[in-house]
Design a protein that fits this description.
The chain has helices spanning 4-127, 133-145, 160-178, 239-250, and strands at residues 181-190, 194-203, 207-211, 220-224, 231-234. Helix 1 (4-127) packs parallel to helix 3 and helix 2 (133-145) packs antiparallel against helix 3 (160-178). Strand 1 (181-190) and strand 2 form a beta hairpin. It has a domain at 180-265. It is α+β, with helices and mostly antiparallel strands.
Length: 265
């Protein structure tokens, strides 16, 4: 048998080794558990980060999808407006072309109208001296609005419409006078350089007859149109005949035949 001391030392060493191994195992287990806890914590943290990133990505994607849909809608609206504007532009170009044609036609018409107005105004100027004083007084305002005879077209300030109205008023009144029998009172110079008031009856623009009254009842005569105005041909013998005709015209006497002298020029 070995000595007791040796056995005890051997047992003691064996016990020490077992304790050391157990301590190492425990420490290793603790380290493993700590590492596992750390790894699990990092794993969960990583999963949380991934979940947050995924949520943020989905949110960003939804925002981008919304913006893309909005941009597509705006682009579609812009395309429709562009097409509509293009259509309007083509329509406007067509209308502008029509207006340009109308403007050219209107300009040509205005030129023709201005030429005709000029001719009508020239005829009115030529006719004016041949009108009786009664008619001149009535139309003086319209006549003064006419462009002066021979005035260049560029210097005429009146519009074509204004010129046309003036011409039509004058010609209408002249035609009306010429187709009617008119009785008026006038101041006229007669023989002896006297200026008296006489009654005048006009048969249009063809002829007129005048007669005095009261103290001038012996005054009478014939009126004839001329290039420088109406000329008086005195004839006292026709004064009572003129009075009779005027009375018939006014309805003061029954109509009948009255022989009045006539001169044709």
């Amino acid at each position: 048998m070995p000595p007791l001391r040796f056995i005890f030392v051997t047992w003691l060493c064996t016990g020490c080794l077992s304790a050391t191994a157990e301590t190492a195992a425990v420490k290793a287990t603790q380290d493993y558990l700590a590492l596992s806890r750390d790894l699990l914590g990092k794993y969960y943290e990583t999963q949380k980060l991934l979940a947050n990133e995924e949520a943020d990505w989905k949110t960003g994607r939804d925002i981008l999808d919304s913006r893309l849909a909005l941009l597509e809608a705006q682009l579609k609206e812009l395309a429709e407006k562009t097409a509509e504007q293009s259509k309007n532009i083509r329509s406007n170009d067509t209308e502008r072309g029509k207006l340009e044609v109308q403007n050219r036609e209107l300009g040509e018409t205005q030129d023709v109208l201005a030429d005709r107005l000029g001719k009508l105004e020239a005829r009115v100027h030529a006719l004016w001296p041949r009108l009786p004083v009664y008619l001149k007084d009535k139309l003086q305002g319209q006549y003064e609005r006419l462009p002066a005879a021979g005035l260049p077209a560029a210097d005429i300030k009146l519009s074509s419409g204004e010129r046309m109205v003036n011409v039509l008023v004058i010609l209408n009144e002249v035609n009306k006078f010429h187709g009617d029998i008119v009785v008026v009172n006038e101041r006229r110079k007669v023989a002896g350089d006297r200026e008296i008031e006489v009654r005048v009856i006009y048969f249009g623009l063809s002829a007129g007859y005048f007669a005095g009254s009261g103290e001038t009842a012996d005054v009478g005569g014939l009126l004839l149109p001329g290039p420088a105005g109406w000329e008086a041909v005195e004839d006292a013998a026709i004064a009572p005949l003129v009075d009779e005709v005027i009375a018939m015209q006014k309805g003061e006497k029954v109509a009948g035949f009255v022989p009045l002298p006539v001169q044709v020029r």
